Amino acid sequence: MTMLRERCNFIVYHFWERADFKKVFERPEGLNAAFGDWISFMPYCAADTAHLSIKNLLKDVSKDSKKLLRTAQMAENWTYSDTAEIVSDELYMPFAAAAATNKKIPAQEREHFARHLRRINSTSLGQVMPALPYTAADGSRHTLEADTVSTMVVLADPEDMQSSTAAIRFSIDPATRTLMENGALRIAWFYPGELTDTASEALVKLPDSWIKGAMPDAGEYFTQRLSPAVYLLDEHGRIVLKDRPYVTALQVFNVMASQQ
Q1: Quick one: which of 51, 36, 32 has its CA closest to 93?
Q2: Contact 188, 223 (CB under 8 A)
Q3: Cβ(234)–Cβ(256) under 8 Å?
Q4: Are 175 and 257 within 8 A, CB to CB?
Q5: What pTM did the predictor assign?
Q6: Using CB atoms within 10 A as the burial measure, which of 2, 22, 149, 231 is most buried?
Q7: CA 56: distance to chain centroid?
Protein backbone atom coordinates (compact mmCIF):
# COMPACT_ATOMS: atom_id res chain seq x y z
CA MET A 1 0.00 0.00 0.00
CA THR A 2 1.54 3.28 -1.11
CA MET A 3 -1.33 5.75 -0.72
CA LEU A 4 -1.79 7.60 2.58
CA ARG A 5 -5.50 6.77 2.84
CA GLU A 6 -4.89 3.07 2.20
CA ARG A 7 -2.25 2.93 4.91
CA CYS A 8 -4.41 4.82 7.40
CA ASN A 9 -7.40 2.62 6.60
CA PHE A 10 -5.30 -0.43 7.41
CA ILE A 11 -3.88 0.99 10.63
CA VAL A 12 -7.25 2.22 11.94
CA TYR A 13 -9.13 -0.96 11.10
CA HIS A 14 -6.53 -3.38 12.50
CA PHE A 15 -5.27 -1.22 15.38
CA TRP A 16 -6.83 -3.19 18.25
CA GLU A 17 -6.69 -6.70 16.78
CA ARG A 18 -3.81 -7.89 18.98
CA ALA A 19 -4.92 -6.03 22.10
CA ASP A 20 -5.57 -8.19 25.14
CA PHE A 21 -8.44 -6.25 26.68
CA LYS A 22 -8.05 -8.18 29.93
CA LYS A 23 -4.64 -6.56 30.36
CA VAL A 24 -4.57 -3.24 28.51
CA PHE A 25 -7.09 -1.63 30.87
CA GLU A 26 -4.71 -2.32 33.75
CA ARG A 27 -2.34 0.28 32.22
CA PRO A 28 -4.58 3.38 31.89
CA GLU A 29 -1.84 5.82 30.85
CA GLY A 30 -0.52 3.56 28.11
CA LEU A 31 -4.04 2.74 26.97
CA ASN A 32 -4.98 6.41 26.76
CA ALA A 33 -1.86 7.17 24.71
CA ALA A 34 -2.61 4.27 22.35
CA PHE A 35 -6.21 5.44 22.02
CA GLY A 36 -4.93 8.88 21.03
CA ASP A 37 -2.63 7.34 18.42
CA TRP A 38 -5.58 5.42 16.95
CA ILE A 39 -7.76 8.52 16.81
CA SER A 40 -4.95 10.56 15.23
CA PHE A 41 -5.08 8.44 12.05
CA MET A 42 -8.84 8.81 11.56
CA PRO A 43 -8.84 12.20 9.79
CA TYR A 44 -6.77 10.57 7.04
CA CYS A 45 -8.79 7.38 6.55
CA ALA A 46 -12.17 6.70 4.95
CA ALA A 47 -15.17 7.59 7.12
CA ASP A 48 -16.73 4.13 6.80
CA THR A 49 -13.45 2.54 7.94
CA ALA A 50 -13.31 4.78 11.01
CA HIS A 51 -16.91 4.01 11.93
CA LEU A 52 -16.45 0.27 11.43
CA SER A 53 -13.34 0.28 13.58
CA ILE A 54 -15.17 2.18 16.33
CA LYS A 55 -18.06 -0.29 16.10
CA ASN A 56 -15.68 -3.23 16.49
CA LEU A 57 -13.95 -1.69 19.50
CA LEU A 58 -17.25 -0.90 21.20
CA LYS A 59 -18.40 -4.47 20.58
CA ASP A 60 -15.38 -5.74 22.53
CA VAL A 61 -15.44 -3.28 25.44
CA SER A 62 -19.23 -3.21 25.89
CA LYS A 63 -19.05 -6.64 27.52
CA ASP A 64 -17.72 -4.88 30.63
CA SER A 65 -19.43 -1.64 31.70
CA LYS A 66 -16.27 -0.36 33.44
CA LYS A 67 -14.24 -0.83 30.27
CA LEU A 68 -16.97 0.83 28.22
CA LEU A 69 -17.10 3.82 30.56
CA ARG A 70 -13.32 4.20 30.44
CA THR A 71 -13.37 3.98 26.64
CA ALA A 72 -16.09 6.64 26.39
CA GLN A 73 -14.09 8.89 28.72
CA MET A 74 -11.02 8.51 26.53
CA ALA A 75 -13.10 9.32 23.45
CA GLU A 76 -14.37 12.46 25.17
CA ASN A 77 -10.84 13.45 26.10
CA TRP A 78 -9.47 13.03 22.57
CA THR A 79 -12.42 14.18 20.42
CA TYR A 80 -14.89 16.30 22.41
CA SER A 81 -13.42 17.97 25.49
CA ASP A 82 -12.20 21.57 25.54
CA THR A 83 -8.65 20.24 25.19
CA ALA A 84 -9.43 17.64 22.52
CA GLU A 85 -6.67 17.30 19.95
CA ILE A 86 -9.01 16.11 17.17
CA VAL A 87 -12.40 17.74 17.66
CA SER A 88 -15.06 15.58 16.01
CA ASP A 89 -18.70 15.18 17.02
CA GLU A 90 -18.96 12.41 14.44
CA LEU A 91 -16.22 10.29 16.04
CA TYR A 92 -17.38 10.95 19.58
CA MET A 93 -21.10 10.18 19.15
CA PRO A 94 -20.88 6.35 18.96
CA PHE A 95 -18.94 6.23 22.24
CA ALA A 96 -21.26 8.67 23.99
CA ALA A 97 -24.34 6.79 22.74
CA ALA A 98 -22.97 3.44 23.96
CA ALA A 99 -22.21 4.83 27.42
CA ALA A 100 -25.47 6.77 27.70
CA THR A 101 -27.59 3.68 27.02
CA ASN A 102 -25.71 1.08 29.08
CA LYS A 103 -27.76 0.57 32.24
CA LYS A 104 -24.82 -0.98 34.09
CA ILE A 105 -23.04 2.38 34.00
CA PRO A 106 -24.00 4.66 36.94
CA ALA A 107 -26.90 7.00 36.17
CA GLN A 108 -24.84 10.12 36.74
CA GLU A 109 -22.27 9.01 34.20
CA ARG A 110 -24.97 8.01 31.70
CA GLU A 111 -26.55 11.46 31.98
CA HIS A 112 -23.15 13.07 31.41
CA PHE A 113 -22.89 11.44 28.00
CA ALA A 114 -26.60 11.83 27.23
CA ARG A 115 -26.20 15.58 27.80
CA HIS A 116 -23.39 15.66 25.27
CA LEU A 117 -25.55 13.82 22.74
CA ARG A 118 -28.40 16.29 23.17
CA ARG A 119 -25.99 19.16 22.67
CA ILE A 120 -24.47 17.59 19.55
CA ASN A 121 -27.88 16.86 18.09
CA SER A 122 -29.03 20.45 18.57
CA THR A 123 -25.92 22.36 17.49
CA SER A 124 -23.97 20.27 14.98
CA LEU A 125 -23.00 21.66 11.60
CA GLY A 126 -26.00 21.53 9.29
CA GLN A 127 -28.52 21.34 12.14
CA VAL A 128 -31.23 23.96 12.55
CA MET A 129 -30.55 25.67 15.85
CA PRO A 130 -33.39 25.32 18.36
CA ALA A 131 -35.15 28.27 19.99
CA LEU A 132 -32.82 29.72 22.62
CA PRO A 133 -34.18 31.22 25.86
CA TYR A 134 -32.24 34.17 27.28
CA THR A 135 -32.55 37.01 29.77
CA ALA A 136 -32.01 40.57 28.58
CA ALA A 137 -29.92 43.06 30.58
CA ASP A 138 -33.13 44.56 32.04
CA GLY A 139 -34.16 41.15 33.39
CA SER A 140 -36.90 40.45 30.83
CA ARG A 141 -37.15 36.94 29.33
CA HIS A 142 -36.95 36.35 25.58
CA THR A 143 -36.36 33.60 23.05
CA LEU A 144 -34.08 33.75 20.03
CA GLU A 145 -35.87 32.16 17.09
CA ALA A 146 -34.56 31.28 13.63
CA ASP A 147 -35.02 34.13 11.15
CA THR A 148 -34.77 34.67 7.41
CA VAL A 149 -31.38 36.37 7.70
CA SER A 150 -27.97 35.11 8.71
CA THR A 151 -27.39 35.13 12.46
CA MET A 152 -24.18 35.10 14.45
CA VAL A 153 -24.62 33.70 17.96
CA VAL A 154 -21.74 34.56 20.27
CA LEU A 155 -21.13 33.21 23.78
CA ALA A 156 -18.73 35.49 25.61
CA ASP A 157 -17.62 36.16 29.16
CA PRO A 158 -17.68 39.95 29.67
CA GLU A 159 -14.54 39.75 31.83
CA ASP A 160 -12.57 37.91 29.15
CA MET A 161 -10.18 40.19 27.26
CA GLN A 162 -10.39 38.17 24.02
CA SER A 163 -14.19 38.44 24.05
CA SER A 164 -14.03 42.19 24.69
CA THR A 165 -11.65 42.60 21.78
CA ALA A 166 -13.96 40.54 19.55
CA ALA A 167 -16.93 42.74 20.46
CA ILE A 168 -14.99 45.85 19.45
CA ARG A 169 -13.84 44.24 16.20
CA PHE A 170 -17.38 43.30 15.18
CA SER A 171 -18.80 46.69 16.18
CA ILE A 172 -16.35 48.65 14.00
CA ASP A 173 -15.91 46.20 11.13
CA PRO A 174 -17.23 47.86 7.93
CA ALA A 175 -18.46 44.62 6.34
CA THR A 176 -20.32 43.55 9.49
CA ARG A 177 -21.95 46.94 9.84
CA THR A 178 -22.95 46.99 6.17
CA LEU A 179 -24.61 43.57 6.42
CA MET A 180 -26.54 44.62 9.54
CA GLU A 181 -27.65 47.92 8.03
CA ASN A 182 -28.87 46.07 4.92
CA GLY A 183 -30.84 43.60 7.03
CA ALA A 184 -28.71 40.63 5.92
CA LEU A 185 -27.22 39.86 9.33
CA ARG A 186 -28.08 40.00 13.00
CA ILE A 187 -25.79 39.48 15.98
CA ALA A 188 -26.92 37.76 19.19
CA TRP A 189 -24.34 38.20 21.96
CA PHE A 190 -24.88 36.17 25.13
CA TYR A 191 -23.17 35.78 28.47
CA PRO A 192 -23.22 32.00 29.18
CA GLY A 193 -24.41 32.21 32.78
CA GLU A 194 -26.81 33.90 35.16
CA LEU A 195 -27.37 37.62 34.70
CA THR A 196 -24.93 39.23 37.16
CA ASP A 197 -24.28 42.94 37.69
CA THR A 198 -20.95 42.60 35.86
CA ALA A 199 -22.58 40.80 32.92
CA SER A 200 -25.42 43.33 32.78
CA GLU A 201 -23.02 46.27 32.69
CA ALA A 202 -20.99 44.65 29.92
CA LEU A 203 -24.08 43.82 27.86
CA VAL A 204 -25.42 47.38 28.07
CA LYS A 205 -22.18 48.66 26.52
CA LEU A 206 -22.65 46.51 23.40
CA PRO A 207 -24.28 48.11 20.30
CA ASP A 208 -28.04 48.65 20.63
CA SER A 209 -28.59 46.96 17.27
CA TRP A 210 -27.39 43.63 18.70
CA ILE A 211 -29.54 41.08 20.45
CA LYS A 212 -27.90 40.63 23.86
CA GLY A 213 -28.51 38.93 27.15
CA ALA A 214 -27.53 36.16 29.54
CA MET A 215 -28.10 32.49 28.79
CA PRO A 216 -27.76 30.31 31.92
CA ASP A 217 -28.54 27.15 29.94
CA ALA A 218 -25.95 27.80 27.23
CA GLY A 219 -24.08 24.63 28.19
CA GLU A 220 -27.13 22.56 27.25
CA TYR A 221 -26.88 23.76 23.65
CA PHE A 222 -23.31 24.80 22.93
CA THR A 223 -19.74 23.70 23.25
CA GLN A 224 -17.49 26.60 24.16
CA ARG A 225 -13.99 25.48 23.22
CA LEU A 226 -12.94 28.95 22.15
CA SER A 227 -13.46 32.34 23.74
CA PRO A 228 -15.62 33.79 22.45
CA ALA A 229 -17.56 30.83 21.05
CA VAL A 230 -19.03 31.77 17.67
CA TYR A 231 -21.86 30.00 15.84
CA LEU A 232 -22.95 31.28 12.43
CA LEU A 233 -26.39 30.40 11.06
CA ASP A 234 -27.55 30.78 7.48
CA GLU A 235 -30.87 32.34 6.48
CA HIS A 236 -32.61 29.02 7.20
CA GLY A 237 -31.27 28.79 10.74
CA ARG A 238 -28.77 26.04 9.87
CA ILE A 239 -25.40 26.09 11.60
CA VAL A 240 -22.67 26.68 9.01
CA LEU A 241 -19.76 27.69 11.25
CA LYS A 242 -18.69 26.64 14.76
CA ASP A 243 -15.55 25.97 16.79
CA ARG A 244 -13.60 28.51 14.75
CA PRO A 245 -11.85 31.74 15.87
CA TYR A 246 -14.04 34.83 15.72
CA VAL A 247 -11.82 36.31 13.01
CA THR A 248 -13.13 33.58 10.69
CA ALA A 249 -16.61 35.11 11.00
CA LEU A 250 -15.14 38.50 10.14
CA GLN A 251 -13.65 36.98 6.99
CA VAL A 252 -17.00 35.42 6.07
CA PHE A 253 -18.78 38.75 6.54
CA ASN A 254 -16.25 40.44 4.28
CA VAL A 255 -17.08 37.95 1.52
CA MET A 256 -20.84 38.30 2.11
CA ALA A 257 -20.65 42.09 1.96
CA SER A 258 -18.63 42.02 -1.28
CA GLN A 259 -21.36 39.90 -2.90
CA GLN A 260 -24.18 42.31 -2.14
Answers
A1: 51
A2: no
A3: no
A4: yes
A5: 0.82
A6: 231
A7: 26
